[in-house]
Amino acid sequence: MKKILEYLLPILWMLFSLFLFLAPPSDFDTGNSLFDFPHKDKVAHIVIFGILSFLWMRVFNRTNLKTGTNISIYALIGFIVLSWAISTEVMQATLTTTRSGDILDVFADLFGGSLGIVGYHILNRTALKVFC
After folding, report:
1. Taking the model in full, what pTM does it have?
2. Which UniProt keywords apply (predicted)?
3. What domain range is 59 assigned to?
4. Which residues of the chain are modeled with pLDDT < 70?
5. Rounded CA separation 132/127 (Å)
6. Sign of the CA dihedral running 15, 49, 43, 90
7. Which of 16, 15, 11, 45 is nearest to 116 (CA)?
């Protein structure tokens, strides 16, 4: 049961991101908000996917996934991020009339996923130095 709960947070984050990606555009998207700057949609993708990969890194390090090496964990997280990025863009292009798929969003998603992995390692090492 404990291992199932470990997976709950990243899965809930994926569902939340799906809601964000498929919801009709809000004031944030249309430029009528306080956060009006160029490419803010790409920044949002980077943040969302950075958090996603960070959460998956947390799960796989805590559950001691038996993949052999860290390279395998990175490949698995990369596969999850890439699959989710492509899936959300395809869903935006096919399931909504208010959104469109964009290959540049996939690149932003991959960049965010990479930042999440790096961020996890930086925070993990910093926490080890502070508490050990």
Report:
1. 0.82
2. Membrane, Transmembrane, Transmembrane helix
3. 2-131
4. 1-2, 26-39, 62-71, 128-132
5. 8
6. negative
7. 45
CB 17 within 8 A of CB 48: yes
pLDDT per residue over 90-103, tens digit each?
999 999 888 888 89
* 43-52 residue pLDDT tens: 999 999 999 9
User: What is the rounded CA–CA span in Å between residue 51 and residue 81?
Assistant: 11
Please count the structural domains in the chain.
Answer: 1
Cα Rg for the chain, rounded, in angstroms? Answer: 16
Q: In the chain, which ranges are E strands?
A: none
For the residues of 98-131, what is the DSSP string, one character each?
Answer: S----HHHHHHHHHHHHHHHHHHHHHHHHHHHHH
> For residue 13, what are its two tokens?
């984050």
Distance (Å, rounded) from C-alpha 46 to C-alpha 23?
18
| CA distances in angstroms from 117 to 14, 24, 57, 85, listed in the order given | 16, 30, 7, 16
CA 94 to chain centre: 21
